[in-house]
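Here is one chain, start to finish.
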Amino acid sequence: MKLWQKDYVLNSQIEAFTVGEDYQVDQKLVEYDCQASKAHASMLYKIGILTEDEHEKLCNELDRIIELHKNGRFTISVNDEDCHTAIENYLTESLGETGKKIHTGRSRNDQVLAALRLYYKEMLLDAKKKILSLQKAVDTLIKTWGSVPIPGYTHTRKAMPSSVGLWAGALKAALDDDLLQLKSVYDLIDQSPLGSGAGYGVPLKLDRKSVADDLGFAKVQENPIYVQTSRGKFDAALLHFISFVLFDANKVATDLILFTMPDFGFFTLPDTFLTGSSIMPQKKNPDVLELIRANYHQVLGYEMQVKSLIANLLSGYHRDFQLLKKPVMYALDILLTTLSMLTLVFENLQVDEKKCKNAMTPELYATEKVYDLVKEGMSFREAYQRVAKEESMLKKR
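Its structure:
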C-alpha cells in the first residue's frame, strides 16, 4: 500500500514512470530512514501520541528491518515506490494499527530529507577519513623522495627548478582546503528537517529539537518552506564539494600520466597497476590515472544536472526533487572510490632519481641567473634582457 493511497488503482504505466529508479537507489537509505523513524517514534511517545508499548514495539521492528537490510533480506518493490513506503508497510504488516501510527506528524517530504541528510553526513565523514589517508600517503612520499629535484613547468614547457616535495606538497595543501570545504558542507547539511511536514508544518505540538538531538543533528531547520527549498540547494553544495576534491585528483592524475611516461620517467607505478592493450603486446597503460582524471568530469556533469533540475521551481516540494537522489549518490560513490584509488597510487609510487636529475637542464636556472645579477645591483629588467640573450645564444649553438 502506498503512503498516499486513495480509493483507486494507479495506472501501471504511470506508476512505473513516477517510481522510476527510486526503489533501487533507496536501498542506500533503509538504515537511515529506520534511524529517523526511531527518533520520530520516541518523540511521539514523549508527546503522548504513542504508548510505551507501541513505542517499544515500533523501535524493535525498525531494528529488525535494519538487520534484515544488512543481510540483504529487506526488499523494496516497484509497488512500494521507495524505502519509506516499504518500511511503513512492513511495520503495518507486523504490528497492525501500531504500525499505521508511525507516520503521524510527518510527511514523506521531511521523511525523505531526514534519511538523505543522515546518509550524506555519514558519507562526508567517510570522505574525511579518506582525504586524511591520502594526505598521509602524500606525506610519506615527501619524506622519502621530497628532496629529489624535478623540472617545474608552465605552458607545458620547462620553467624553473622544482622538487618532488614541492609538487606533492601542492596536493597536500589542496586537500587541506578540501577539508575546509567539507566542514562547510557538513555544517550546512547538519540540520534536522523532521517536523516540517510537506513544507508548511504539522498541526501538532511536535518536539522537533528532541528528534534533532536524538539523530545527532546540530540544530533544527526552522522554516518549513525553506526545508523544501534547501533540498536541491544542499545537494548542489554537496556536489560542488565533491567536484572541488575531484578537481585536485584530476590535476594530480594528469601530472602523473605525463610524468610516468617512459619519455619522462620521473615516477613509476608497479606493473600490477597497469593494464594492457588487446593488440599491442608491449603496452602498459595508466588506466587507473585516466579514470581518476575522468571522474571529475562525470561529477561536474552531475552537479550541473542537479543545479538545472532545481531552477525555476516555485517554493515548496516538487516531484522533480526525486531525480536528485541518483546523481548525488553516484557522485558520492565516485568520490570515495577515487580517493581510495589515488591513495593506493601514492602508497606505491616510486621516484627515479636519475631521470629526475637528468631532466634538470640548464635553462631551468635562467631566472636564478637574473636574480644573481639583481643581487649585484643590476636592475631586474636589464638582468632579464642580458640572461634572455645568453639563453638565446646557447640554443643557437
